[in-house]
Amino acid sequence: MIRLKKTLLQLLPGIIGLIAWQMYITLEPKSEFYLGSPIGITHEFCSLLFHGNLLYNASITTFEAILGFLSGVTLGTILGLSLWLSKTVYDMTKPYLIILGALPVFALGPILIFWFGTGILSKIVIGFLATFVIALMQAYNGASRTDNNLLILIQSFGGSKMDSFKKVVIPSSLFWVLAGIRINISMALLGAFIGEFISSEAGLGHEIIMAEGLFNVNQIWVGVIGLVLIALLFNSLTLLIENWAKKWNR
Q: Would you say residue 1 has pLDDT above 80?
């Protein structure tokens, strides 16, 4: 009962906002051309869902974001943790990592689309680059902040550097990696969307561009809502991963 009450209280501001929005459009019908309306968005959503390509475009964006996220986070985390094993290699690569981290990856979007085409691959590559550096730096920072006393303890029992890496460094880095995952979920989705927005054949970004060309604000809002729903889905999956990791780390 308390949880239901809390949920209703959280929904209340949004409901009031939607009612006020619709009332304003009712009083000023011409404003719907610029602002859209909740009723118009609902009609557009149902039309695209049952008679359009909304589900297809949403699935394309989701697929691009997931593949970009998985490839970037997996490779970035593995390399970030591995850099702990060799300070020399880290010192050699550090300037390039700083440059890559400082570079707005999305600025490379047009070049990547020129190289990899307007299909799914270019969006996956953008998502990969958007998540790779964050995952790598989070993993390395977590590894480098491992409690030195634990490392000394492993060594005092005759453990090798690899033993320290597997039994101490990786578990100690877990929450840093998880923090990077939460950031990278949004970055992967943003990478897929920006790639679609620059040039695409399908996806929610493509849907929004087409709606913009038709001056259909309600359809643009449908695309935005689709992105929000995907982000919420990703966030829920992140929470599941975090809960699993906490149990595993006990």
A: no
Question: Per the structure block, which two tokens stand in for 89?
Answer: 């290699």
Residues 6+ apart with CB under 8 A from 100: 133
* Residue that is written with structure tokens 């949403």 in the block: 58
* pLDDT tens track for 114-136: 888 878 888 899 889 889 988 98
- Domains of the chain plus CATH, in order, are 55-249 (1.10.3720.10)
Q: How far apart are the first and last CA of the chain?
A: 32
- Longest CA–CA span in the chain (Å) reads 79
User: Which run of H or of E encompasses 23?
Assistant: helix 2-27
CA 40, CA 220: separation in Å to the nearest integer? Answer: 11
The pTM for the full model equals 0.83
Three-state DSSP class for residue 199 = coil
Q: Report, in this order, helix, strand and coil percent for the chain, each rounded to 5.
A: 90, 0, 10
As a whole number, the mean pLDDT across the chain is 83
d(CA 224, CA 221): 5
Let me know: does 79 contact 136? Beta carbons within 8 Å: yes
Phi, psi of 117 (to 5 degrees): 90, 180
